[in-house]
Amino acid sequence: MTTGVWGDETFVENLRAVGARAYHDKHPFHVAMNEGRLSPEALRGWVANRFYYQRNIPIKDAAILSNCPVREVRRVWIHRILDHDGNSENEGGIEAWLRLGEACGLSGAELIEDRHLQPGVRFAVDAYVNFARTQPWPIAIASSLTELFAPDLMAARLAAFEKFYQWIDPRGLDYFRRRVTQAQRDSDNALAITLEYCNTPELQREAVRALEFKCDVLWSILDAVHHAYAKNC
Ligand code: AHQ
Predict the structure, then answer these.
(1) pLDDT tens digits, residue range 12-46?
(2) Ligand 1 near 210 CB (within 6 A)
(3) In the prediction, which pLDDT does 14 show?
(4) 147 C-alpha vs ligand 1 centroid, how far in Å?
(5) How far apart are CA 187 and CA 85, in angstroms?
(6) Structural domain boundaries of the chain?
(7) Of 31, 147, 153, 175, which is best to mutate to test ligand 1, by the most ligand atoms within 8 angstroms of its C-beta?
(8) End-to-end CA distance of the chain, in Å?
(9) What CATH number has the domain spanning 8-232?
(10) 147 close to ligand 1 (CB < 6 Angstrom)
(11) Which of 30, 67, 81, 225 is within CB 3.0–4.6 Å of 137 for a Cys-Cys bond?
């Protein structure tokens, strides 16, 4: 046992402490959303801007794959690209998000052409893709561990949409229904890889910093959306 390496339990505790402090479930925009206080304009603004995040997730994950020489890790990670881009059997998350847009009254063209994209959202998402391209692949994988905290948020969001936003066609909510289980599977996989490959004191501390960075990415996205569409919420 070399000095300074955290055991798995301590490592996971340190990762989870980041989410407890900084995950975007606590952002005022999400609090307003889950309390039913968002206007249709604010929800449409959020859906349109989050599309830019969703369409960049497979690009981010492909960047990680291109940096990763370990076949066993690539075999696990490649599913994330198909989850979003889809294939002949499965529409994928990007298609499902376009259906969410339609259900809110946004055309596919508005989302695909980034007509509502806020500068701060573009900046935060591009920073995340660049992080995945330039960081060591285990650190880029660790940054996805915000998904440790996503299943509870997805469930709360689904309940809020069904209760407060009935003007949205419920078929548009398929994306969130799928994410509850996909985020659980994703974070289980990402955590196992992080525990195995972030195996020095420096890599463990970089993994915690990567999660802090990713929490800032998600928080900044909501800051930009909040400022543009829901200043008084
Ligand atoms: O819909 C989300 C998604 O596909 C992903 C991929 C993952 C990653 O690789 O960083 N993170 C993520 C997240 C999604 N939804 C967010 C939300 O609040 O709807 C949460 C976000 C995450 O927790 O990282």
Answers:
(1) 999 999 999 999 999 999 999 999 999 999 999 99
(2) no
(3) 98
(4) 6
(5) 19
(6) 8-232
(7) 147
(8) 51
(9) 1.20.910.10
(10) yes
(11) 67
153 lines ligand 1 (CB under 6 A): yes
Q: Is the dihedral of CA 220, 143, 52, 186 positive or negative?
A: negative
Residue at 46: amino acid letter = W
- In this prediction, residue 87 carries a pLDDT of 95
Cα 194 to Cα 4, 14, 58, 191, 207: the distances in Å are 17, 13, 19, 5, 8
Question: Which residues of the chain fall below pLDDT 70?
Answer: 1-3
φ/ψ of 199, rounded to 5, equals -120, 20
Q: Which residue stretches of the chain are H helix?
A: 8-22, 28-34, 40-67, 71-85, 93-104, 108-112, 119-134, 137-143, 150-164, 174-197, 201-229
pLDDT of residue 2: 53
Please report the pLDDT score of residue 41 as a whole number. 97
Which pLDDT score is estimated for 230?
85
